[in-house]
Amino acid sequence: MASGITMAVVGATGAAGSTTLQILEERKFPIRELRVFASERSVGKTVSFKGDALRLQRIEATAFKGVDIAICAAGTAQSREFSPMIAKAGAVVVDKSNAFRMDPAVPLVVPEINGHVVKTHRGIVASPNCTTIVTVMPLKPLHDAARLRRVVATSYQSVSGAGVNGIEDLRQQTLAWARGEAMVPRHFAHRIAFNLIPAIDAFRPDGYTGEEMKLVDETRKILECPDLLIAPTTVRVPVFTCHSVAVNAETDTKVTAAQARELFARFPGLKVCDDPAAQRYPMPVAVEGQDDCWVGRVREDLSHPCGLNFWVVGDQLRKGAATNAVQIAELLLDS
Fold first, then answer.
1. Active site residue 243
2. Which helix (H) or strand (E) segment is 187 a member of?
3. Pick from 198, 247, 253: which is nearest to 219 by CA?
4. Pair (117, 137) in one structural domain
5. From start to end of the chain, where are the E strands?
6. Residue 130 annotated as catalytic
7. What is the β-pairing status of strands 148-157 and 229-236?
8. Among residues 72, 143, 242, 243, which one is catalytic?
9. Are residue 163 and residue 243 in the same domain, yes or no?
10. What pLDDT score was predicted for residue 70?
11. Under the phi-then-psi rule, with left for phi > 0, alpha for psi from -120 to 50, and beta for the rest, what region is 224?
12. Are residues 89 and 145 in the same domain?
């Protein structure tokens, strides 16, 4: 491989991990050696990177000796076990799971918003939940311009947010419908084809889900606004890729729809697509494969003088996961 650093990708066979390999290649990340890791059942198999077949390795401390940066795309339980071990071996870990996001000692980073905090790491940097990233991207310029007071966010989350099993559930059920067969859920609690499921993650005693509270807690940490009022709802929808979020944001001072569009258009990583007369607004089919989050349907709130409504869509496998993690790794190169 080209001159550069020694890098590792853990969870390289999953939806987020395989997209990470794609993003590293697209962004020409300066890699001298790339080591790839997966679960025990995948050890010995190969994944492709820059035309080379890389053999998947077993996750063990000795395998990370000499690694500079490791992107961990494993589940929360696995990350809790492996990320400290990898960091102890000498690598800086960019962790995409929920394991360390709310740890006060671990920076939670969206590079366009708070990239400066990456320098405070102690071996692990956390990448936020995919829905949080898509939501917080347009919130940041509003917060800087007029200070946020309250946010109501309802997310419409694609099945790939649940990994390869979520993708397969929708695919198999859709094929079964086309054949006139019974649609049997194997991953989700209910049928997802031609249906909406207003529950993602486990319910808490207060009726909110873990996924909803990630949006609350992580947004407050990223924006350094611990008292921000946030009302979340998460919905699983029969879309393969891209999360969409309907947002109502209340600010201290009024921001007009025109001013908001200008703020969004100037902010890195956002693209405005807002021409209702021409039927132009963000949709998953247009945003899939893009790194920018697209914002549209920007309008002033009829019920509050300092409120705005808008619709934002982001590819949660790219900006919501892989791209954000690789951007953090790029920051680490410069820190």
1. yes
2. none
3. 247
4. no
5. 5-10, 31-37, 46-49, 52-57, 69-72, 92-95, 124-126, 148-157, 229-236, 243-251, 270-272, 293-300, 307-314
6. yes
7. parallel
8. 243
9. yes
10. 98
11. left
12. no
Question: Which of 70, 140, 96, 77 shows the shortest CA–CA distance to 316?
Answer: 96
Residues 112, 148, single domain; the answer is: no
Structure tokens at 206: 């207060």
Structure token digits, residue 98: 């929920």
Tally of domains within the chain: 2
Do 156 and 262 lie in a common domain? yes
The answer to whether the CB of 181 falls within 8 A of the CB of 171 is: no
Rounded CA-CA distance 52/55 in Å is 10
Nearest Cα to 233, choosing from 215, 251, 206?
215
Residue linked to tokens 């929920």 = 98
Q: In this structure, are 257 and 296 located in the same domain? A: yes
- Any idea what the CATH number is for the domain that residue 91 is in? 3.40.50.720
CB atoms within 10 A of CB 328: 25
Spatial neighbors of 314 by CB under 8 A, at least 6 apart, are 130, 133, 134, 137, 242, 243, 287, 292, 293, 294, 320
Both tokens of 53, joined, read 């077949």
Q: Is 244 left (phi over 0), alpha (psi -120 to 50) or beta?
A: beta
Question: Looking at 130, 143, 242, 293, which residue is catalytic?
Answer: 130
Domain span at residue 214 reads 132-316
Q: pLDDT tens-digit profile of 7-35?
A: 999 999 988 999 999 999 999 999 999 99
Low pLDDT (below 50) residues in the chain: 1-2
pTM for this prediction: 0.95
The encoded tokens of residue 236 equal 């699983």
Phi, psi of 235 (to 5 degrees): -135, 130
